[in-house]
Write a structure and sequence with these properties.
The chain has 356 residues and is mainly alpha-helical. The longest helix is centred in the last third of the chain and has 41 residues. The chain contains 13 helices and no strands.
Length: 356
């Protein structure tokens, strides 16, 4: 285990243990117990049976072999390589063919590809007297430009460093999650998308020196995995509560002719104290994290759709896309809308419609 994951585990352990202890006394101190308690209270005040649906597991982040694309091999003929004396390209190719060069990490491979393209372009004017060598270098450079999207994909989605960020083993977004880490990740994504967009538009001199620091932060954080699990929890429990409310609406009204009663007052009090006071702030926090991170990752993937591996597409459509029937975030928006509508219908029978 690398030191970034160790630091992350050590950093989160006291929080996890403390949350587990407190949750035993206060159900609103942790997301899972809070949402379970909320469904139970909705059922109690509406005098309905209820069931807690099993929260589905988040899909595993696609394995590295499913995410990483094969880079086309390109080797200059040895005689051609020796003829490049005086060109920087000779040194660039030599570094790639060294022992260390053959085990380059994806980000370094991308940097190498860009150096090759630049060095080959600078070398071509010196080769105009040797038509065969000129054509060979020009062809090699063209091939490198053509395969550049593969190198970009591997340097972003094909890396080992991105995997901890999407792990499903680190629990839910804690109540009161700090925005500092999320802001750092969002800034990283904005810069990365801006630079890669320039690269895709042909600005091959775009600086990528910051990518190492970005990927170190990915290794040390688990926010996307936590966010996805929190989204699944909210969809499941809000639908559980909505099913309870729908059964009450289908059976008998909470109030007749908008005349309030004791049960209605209890339901209204629970709505404000539990739903508005506890559940909604957590929902708002999940939405803030989603709005900060998911659009950036969606852009990072969608901008590379031409080379996106087939095995990655289901994960992209479900967790990295804000729209579409398969999108978790689309389902969450629909679930919140249904849940809000049912509360309005219930309390509207008593002359009170929250949110209006």
């Amino acid at each position: 285990m690398n030191r970034f994951r160790i630091n992350s585990l050590v950093r989160h352990l006291p929080v996890v243990l403390t949350a587990a202890l407190i949750a035993g006394c206060n159900p609103f101190s942790a997301p899972q117990s809070m949402m379970d308690e909320y469904v139970e209270r909705v059922a109690r005040v509406l005098e309905q049976d209820h069931a807690l649906t099993e929260v589905p597991l988040a899909d595993l982040f696609p394995r590295r072999r499913e995410r990483r694309l094969e880079m086309p091999e390109l080797e200059l003929d040895m005689l051609d390589f020796l003829s490049l004396y005086g060109c920087e390209l000779q040194f660039v190719v030599g570094e790639r063919n060294s022992g260390l060069g053959r085990v380059m990490q994806p980000v370094n491979v991308l940097r190498y590809e860009l150096r090759f393209i630049e060095a080959a372009g600078n070398c071509l004017p010196q080769l105009e007297d040797d038509e065969g060598l000129y054509d060979a270098v020009a062809k090699a450079r063209g091939a490198k430009v053509e395969s550049l999207p593969i190198a970009v994909w591997n340097a972003t989605w094909g890396t080992e460093e991105i995997e901890p960020l999407f792990t499903r083993t680190e629990g839910l977004l804690p109540i009161g999650t700090s925005g500092a880490t999320v802001s750092d990740l969002a800034r990283d994504l904005a810069l990365l998308n801006t630079r890669l967009s320039a690269l895709q538009e042909g600005s091959l001199g775009t600086g990528l020196e910051f990518m190492g620091e970005v990927q170190q932060r990915w290794q040390a954080e688990d926010r996307m995995g936590q966010l996805i699990k929190s989204g699944l929890l909210l969809v499941t429990r809000l639908n559980d509560a909505a099913d309870v409310m729908q059964r009450r609406l289908d059976s008998h009204p909470l109030c007749l002719k908008q005349r309030t009663n004791n049960q209605a007052e209890i339901a209204k009090s629970m709505f404000f104290s539990v739903y508005a006071g506890e559940v909604q702030p957590y929902m708002a926090m999940v939405n803030r994290v989603r709005d900060a991170l998911v659009p950036g990752f969606e852009q990072l993937a969608a901008s590379q759709s031409d080379v996106m591996p087939q095995d990655f597409k289901p994960y992209y459509r479900r967790y990295l896309s804000l729209t579409g029937e398969q999108s978790l975030w689309h389902r969450l928006d629909e679930t919140v809308a249904r849940h809000t509508r049912l509360w309005q219908e219930l309390l509207g029978q008593c002359g009170f419609r929250p949110g209006q």
